Amino acid sequence: MTTLIVSYDGTDNDRDALALGRVLAGAGAALELAYVAHRSEPEPDSPTDVPFHVVDNPSTAEGLRELAITRGAEVIVFGSEYRTARGHVDPQATAKRLLDGGPVALALAPAGYAESNHKPIRTIRAVSEDGDPCARETAETLAARLGAEVVSSGDADLVVVGSKPGTVNGRVTVSAAAEYLIELAGAPVLVIPRGVALHFHA
Known about the structure:
The chain is of the alpha/beta class. Helices cover 27% and strands 25% of the residues.
C-alpha cells in the first residue's frame, strides 16, 4: 500500500496538509504524521487516529527524507508557506528543498484547505513538459480510486506534475514553468519523481 507522510507541527498550514493527506488516503494509502524536532522543542498535539513520528534532526528536510526512505513512503505532504493567500499554493522552505532532488513525491496543499470545506476531487489534470507518461498514469490511477475524471487542460481539483526533463529517474526536480504552474494552480498539487508513477490501491 502507498504510504503518505504528512509534515505536521500543529500549525494551520500543516492542518491543511493533514486534510489533503486524508483526501489522498481515501484513494487507498496509509497515512502517517511526522514532526522533525530541533533541540528541545515541545511536540505538537497530534490526531490520535494517525501514527505519529518524532524525528530528531537539525534539518527538517533531511529528517523527513530519511523517515520517508525508512518507512518506504512514496509521498510527503506539506501545507503552504505561512501567510500564503487562501486558496493558493506556495511551497514551504522545506518543501522547496525536497523539490530540488528529493527522493519521493510531494503533495502540496493550498492555504486554508482544511477549513474551506473543500469539494471532493472530481477532476485531475496531469502536466508533463515532455510527454513523460508517469504523470498521466498517476492521475488515471487516482481518478479510478476517487471516482474522478482526468482532464487535459483548465482548472482541476488536483494537479499532478511530472519532474522536468533531464532529472535523474526517481528524483524530483521542477522547472521554472512548473513552479509558476504550482503558484497558479488554486488546487492541491502532487509533484512526482521522474520516471515514477504512483499506484494507489486498497
